[in-house]
Amino acid sequence: MAIQFKCGDCGADIAVRDGSGGRSVRCPKCQKVQVIPGDAAGAAAAASDFATAQGQGDDKGPRKPPCPICGTPTKPGKSCPKCGRAGAGRVRPPSEAGRNAWKFITVGIVLALAGGLIYAVMWTLKQAGQAGGDYAQTLVDARTYAQEVTCKENLANLQKTLAIFRQAEQRSPTTLHELIERNYAGPENLRCPKTKTDFIYIPGQTEKDDPQNVVVYEPDAPHAGKAFLLRLSGQIDCLTADQLKAEVEATQKRLRQ
């Protein structure tokens, strides 16, 4: 059976479930905290006694507040004469200062949590930005490495294609485009994949010439200031622009002799 009693401040009817005696409940009308009487039978009398003790009773003067367990009127600060609960007659509703203190504490906790959340978000974004930059650099490095590998593979395949052409045609090609025209190679196999620039070919060489001669090379130095070249022996080197120029001039000088 539900416990029913009246609010000691505004007189509104309050009903709570059975077994809630001794606990506190907020009045749905005035929002003041009230102590729930101990049983349903003495609820009305206990609430009346409590109201009188707060100056809202009859002309006989203030009465003793009810015990929150059994509802028996109890002298303030004393134990209940019926159930023996210590301090049963002491009813201290929260003061305005106490409520304000809790408000400040709650606001402080909320602000601290919000500040921590903002810091965590900013730190996460910073780490994500750094990780994104590292990831982007890794992609660039991987692409550069892939282009270098492809360039070397094109030169290695070109050396094999030249050997096949010489064996089939009994001569060396006059230009690299002749390899395309006779379906020995595709245009993508005769250029640097990074710059899309065709390789430069030094014609008129046979297997009897110096194996250190340069046969094919890149016109620029697209790989971090260096360029790949293919020697007559099949060796592939990566040289700086000045080194490449010197090797090409040495090859042309040997061919003129």
The geometry reads as: rod-shaped
Strand residues, percent: 5-15%
Order the strands across the largest sheet as they lie in space: 5-6-7-8
Estimate percent helicity: 40-55%
Assembly status: single chain
Q: How far from one another are the termini?
A: 121 Å
Derived from helix and strand composition plus strand pairing, the structural class reads alpha+beta
Mean pLDDT: 81
How many helical elements? Answer: 4
How much is the radius of gyration in Å? 49 Å
Unreliable spans: 40-47, 52-61
Largest sheet: 4 strands, antiparallel
- Count of strand segments: 8
The ordered string of helix (H) and strand (E) elements is: EEEEHHHEEEEH
Structure keywords:
257 residues; alpha+beta; 42% helix; rod-shaped; 4 helices
Characterise this structure.
This protein has about 260 residues and is an alpha+beta fold. It has a domain at about 145-255. It has four helices and eight strands. The strands form three sheets. A four-stranded antiparallel sheet has the order 5-6-7-8, sandwiched between helices. A two-stranded antiparallel sheet has the order 1-2.
Provide a compact summary of the structure:
The protein has 257 residues and is of the alpha+beta class. The protein is 42% helix and 12% strand.
Set down the secondary structure blueprint.
Blueprint: E1 3-6, E2 13-16, E3 24-26, E4 33-35, H1 43-56, H2 96-169, H3 177-181, E5 200-201, E6 214-217, E7 226-231, E8 236-240, H4 241-256
Antiparallel strand pairs: 1-2, 3-4, 5-6, 6-7, 7-8
